[in-house]
Specification:
This is GDSL lipase/esterase. The protein has helices spanning 2-21, 85-92, 108-111, 136-154, 156-165, 174-178, 186-189, 193-213, 231-234, 246-269, 280-289, 344-356, 367-372, and strands at residues 23-27, 30-33, 38-42, 114-116, 167-171, 218-222, 274-278, 304-305, 326-327, 362-364. By secondary structure, the chain is α/β, with parallel strands linked by helices. The strands form three sheets. The protein has a six-stranded mixed beta sheet, sandwiched between helices. It is globular, with a radius of gyration of 20 Å. 49% of the residues are buried.
Amino acid sequence: MESSRLVSIIFFVYTVILSIGSINCKNKNNLVTNQAALFVFGDSLFDAGNNNYIDTVSSFRSNMWPYGQTTFKVPTGRLSDGRLIPDFIAENAWLPLIPPNLQPSNGNNQFTYGVSFASAGAGALVDSFGGMAINLGTQLNNFKDVEKRLRSELGDADTKRVFSRAVYLFHIGANDYFYPFSANSSTFQSNSKEKFVDFVIGNTTSVVKTLYKMGGRKFGFLNVGPYECAPSSLIRDRTKIGSCFKPATELIDMHNKKFPDVLRRLQRELSGFRYALHDYHSSLSERINNPSKYGFKEGKRACCGSGPLRGINTCGNRRGPSQGYELCENVTDYLFFDSSHLTEKAHRQIAELIWGGSPYVTGPYNLKALFEFRLT
């Protein structure tokens, strides 16, 4: 217990030091980061706590114990026992923890080294869990609000410099491909599956192009992970417990086949556009199917939840105390923390692949190369 408390204190001091070291005072009211900033867009894989500040359902929040138990010792809004992928990316980039955009304590200087717009439940389409999450288009609007604040504080030239040097990190699409199987989706019902996937990718591409017009040049992407094989999906068909949810598989596979071609086209069309694409589907599938190879004992059973494989989303009594939940003894044995979200240990491993992976894993650049690249 004392050792874990010491680790938490050291981690806190480390982030404070990074926060101080990453800024350069130009005058009393003007703080400009020396590092490339990190702006984060997406869903629950990246949500650092934005859903704490919106009116949404409990299943899209994690502001209750045992979320946050490993590193922070309190719930932060991250859907994990500890840190998320962007937290480790920020650490590798010598940045402090990237805060949620809606955090009230954010000052303008906070935005010069990055902020997260991600929201649990978010999709690229407006009607995917509409009203319960901050969709990708609204995340872009929130970024535009940040731009206005920075231009007011820093001026046009310094704001442009922050944006051109920054890295923009995305994970989006999974919720779009699951929503039609839990609620009515007019977009899904009135179009072919291929056209539906094109809409998801098209909305994502539109946001990327807008960020490019605003000065963004360096982008990181994860393809859609194998969430059809997450614990929650493995129990959808109670007659076939342990089988992946095939209806979503078809959409996810189609997305992951099309998306690299779209990024290559953007690279041809947009001067100076550079990107890293991590094959998250493969890296997570590997760990689901071969957990012991990566230091896990459980690849398909969640640490926190109830029912078969702890695949029912009750972690933290989010469905009320009457249903209850189970919590594993050693979270580091598990790939999944709850029915759909990974443990800190898993996030660390994936982040390392995104940061420094070979072109076969993350390419054509990795994030380390993007952060080190300096535009003239």
